[in-house]
Amino acid sequence: MEKRFNDRRRNDFNRGPPRQMHKATCDECKQECEVPFKPTQGKPVYCRDCFRKRA
Question: How far apart are the C-alpha atoms of 30 and 50, rounded to whole Å?
């Protein structure tokens, strides 16, 4: 059975060490959250729920 590109790509996503999480405050709901990137001053950060609402 031949693997499809999307299957291979999905498996590659999970390789490597776990991402370092950084504490931040959501710009919309003001709750503390963790994000997988270092927040940059002056750029908005959203918690998971607020990020989904904006999509």
Answer: 10
Tens-place pLDDT, residues 9-37: 555 666 788 889 999 999 999 999 999 99
11 within domain boundaries: no
The residue with tokens 């504490």 is 23
Total count of domains within the chain: 1
Q: Which two tokens stand for residue 28?
A: 């919309």
pTM of the model: 0.66
The answer to whether residue 41 sits within a structural domain is yes
What gap in Å lies between CA 21 and CA 35, rounded to an integer? 5
Residue 23 lies in a domain: yes
